[in-house]
Amino acid sequence: MNSRYFGRFDPSRAEKLQILDHEGRLNEELRPDLPDDRVRKLYERMVVMRVADQTALTLQREGRLGTYAPFYGQEACQASSAFLGPQDWLVPSYRETGALFMRGVPLSLLYRYWMGDERGMSLPDSTRILPVEIVVGAQPLHAVGLSWSLKLKGEKAAAVAYFGDGASSQGDVHEAMNFAGVFKTPTVFVCENNQFAISLPRKQQTAAESIAQRAAGYGFAGLLIDGNDLFAVAGAMVEALEACRGGGGPFLIEMLTYRYGPHTSSDDPTKYRTAEEVESQKPFDPLLRLRRYLESKGLWTDADEAAALEAGRLEAERAITAAEAMAPPSPMDIFSHTRKSAPAYVERQKAELADHLQRGGGHA
Amino acid sequence: MPKLNMVSAINLALDQEMARNDRVMVLGEDVGREGGVFRVTDGLQAKYGPARVVDTPLAESAIVGVSLGLAAGGMVPVAEIQFEGFLYVAMDQLLNQLARYRTRSQGRFSLGVVVRVPWGGGIHAPEMHSDSPETVLVHSPGLTVVQPSNPFDAKGLMLSALRLGEPVVFCEPKRIYRAVKMEVPEEDYTVPIGKAKTVAEGTDLTIVAWGAMVREAVNARKELETLGHSAEVIDLRTLSPMDSQAVIESVRKTGRLVIVHEAPRTLGLGAEIAARVAEEALTSLLAPIERVTGFDTFMPLGLLEEHYLPDAGRITAAAKKALGVERVAA
């Protein structure tokens, strides 16, 4: 493989790919094929993404949304889904709301899902996205099977498995990488290392220098990148995806980032880290450096920033309105999808509920 | 018509469906070159190649989880878990993932995965090679669980399972893999999933069993016949969704019920069958329901397993108790 990134940095020595530093300076030599007009558009979407994420947390605090897993600080990692082609599959964990948004899943549907409405996962057959996975580390195996099927069918496409540093300790993630290596599946493993698995810091998750270095043990290439650097994200993703589509793969990309917010809306991060620590990470914000870069190129102004924020606010507001305007699911929906057709005894249980509701029982 | 044992009957079903549908593939530990430790997939790799009959690394969770992904991509994977005791390693992928995927995706991904698992005791195997954990599977509303008791049903149920388009755990009673040969048609036929079969009609008593226990129930029926009692034997065949109606209707006729299974008694499927009969046919019962089952202990190793597994003698004794012809010490 003609590689610009994979193999050029040794993850076992914590060498990482960084193209755009936190002050907005770009290493032109390493720059991927990512023109400035695309950077500008991606930045705009990342601003909307951040507003949408903060809005979800606010809605949760107001009792209008259920438990929610925010991705504040991980916007560049989440934007990686923008580099998937229409032929590629996205296999998300529960923290990929931003990645799903970038791939075109309507924000209203995502809010609806986190409001506790299963219809939020009604994605059309044309959408190459698997449903959100809640069990930590279960989904990389699905991505391996899915990408294996693509290979068997002769499709030039890949599946991308998203997971976190916590998931990297799960046996299923090991099994997934091992299978992917053995069967040479077109899988891209994206580990968003946001430094915490709820409360457990990354250093207590593994004694290894990096998670990316594990790829070597499975017989494929791993790359550690600055996950707050959209250029590094783009470079690594495009290189891995193109190689997969050309019959290569698998690949492991560890994206180093930092979760500024709580694990979920139920979490209290002050129990396990100080406000100072979080603040010390703020200069490395993935949006801040992109803005600096665009400003340095004369492609972004304060007025653009204000307009993008306002656009985000409006988009989130429209999504909330649409989500809250959806008629509530029917209690009978509980029975809709368990099997293709319900056995007689389940039909009777369904009738029991219908009868109870008809007599005025149930919950408004 | 060839006379086949259950191993050959399942092999024939897989072979024929692989020939008919190129999306069907087999994967698992030792299923290719070795043809499976029980030889159920014998010859398939030679015929269909290593891309469709795949020897995988030794990892049960991956075998199930990867099968989920393959099915999401349109394949029909037949995954083998070598022994039922190893299924626990794959339980998250089986129960939290595969079984729930249809619901989670709002019906988009109805995944036609068949997980084949050699099942139950009676072959003097090591620990964790002889259990009957069907209750764990049946408790999941999204899994179809099948257990044939003879070669004819094994082929027909396997073809049904491969065409269901929903996850099926296909429990293969290893004790009777090679115990009986019977005529198995070459041609394509299916045995419906979700339908019990009345193996033998009777008027005084109903015995319900599945898998290897059906043979014991039939033998008990013969013994009871010599004593002048007429037992009806029902083979459940599909454990989930369960055809409890067949049992209920039989009990309405006979008034007595003996439930037989290898699994421990507490919360074995017998508990559910008894509950459904109590709900719907309590007034038809002329005697308390009898359960002849494994004990609420762990399945012993080979030297004691015959004492653990129900047999015709224990079934006959329970039947006599239900019939009131033999008092059993309390």
Brief overview:
The complex is a heterodimer of chains A (364) and B (330). Chain A is α/β, with parallel strands linked by helices and 364 residues long.
Describe the structure.
The complex is a heterodimer of chains A (364) and B (330). Chain A is α/β, with parallel strands linked by helices. Chain A has 2 domains: 11-325, Thiamin diphosphate (ThDP)-binding fold, Pyr/PP domains (Rossmann fold); 330-364, no CATH class. In chain A, 41% of the residues lie in helices and 9% in strands. The mean pLDDT of chain A is 96. Chain B is α/β, with parallel strands linked by helices and 330 residues long. In chain B, 37% of the residues lie in helices and 19% in strands. Chain B has 12 helices and 14 strands. The longest helix of chain B is centred in the first third of the chain and has 15 residues, at 6-20. Chain B is globular. The mean pLDDT of chain B is 97.
Question: Average pLDDT value of chain B?
Answer: 97
Number of structural units classed as domains of chain A: 2
Any idea of the CATH topology of the largest domain in chain B? Rossmann fold
Biggest interface, CB < 8 A: A-B, 40 and 45 residues
Oligomer: heterodimer
- Counted up, domains of chain B total 2
Secondary structure topology:
The complex is a heterodimer of chains A (364) and B (330).
Chain A: H1 36-61, H2 75-78, E1 89-91, H3 97-102, H4 107-114, H5 139-152, E2 159-164, H6 171-183, E3 187-193, E4 196-197, E5 200-201, H7 214-218, E6 221-226, H8 230-245, E7 251-256, H9 275-281, H10 286-296, H11 302-325, H12 344-358
Parallel strand pairs in A: 1-2, 2-3, 3-7, 6-7
Antiparallel strand pairs in A: 4-5
Helix pairs in contact in A: 1-10, 1-11, 4-11, 5-6
Chain B: E1 3-4, H1 6-20, E2 24-28, H2 44-48, E3 53-55, H3 60-72, E4 76-80, H4 91-98, H5 101-104, E5 114-119, H6 134-138, E6 144-146, H7 151-164, E7 168-173, E8 182-183, E9 197-200, E10 205-209, H8 213-226, E11 231-235, E12 238-240, H9 244-254, E13 257-264, H10 269-281, E14 290-294, H11 302-308, H12 312-323
Parallel strand pairs in B: 2-3, 2-4, 4-5, 5-7, 6-7, 10-11, 10-13, 13-14
Antiparallel strand pairs in B: 1-8, 6-12, 9-11
Helix pairs in contact in B: 1-7, 3-4, 8-12, 9-10
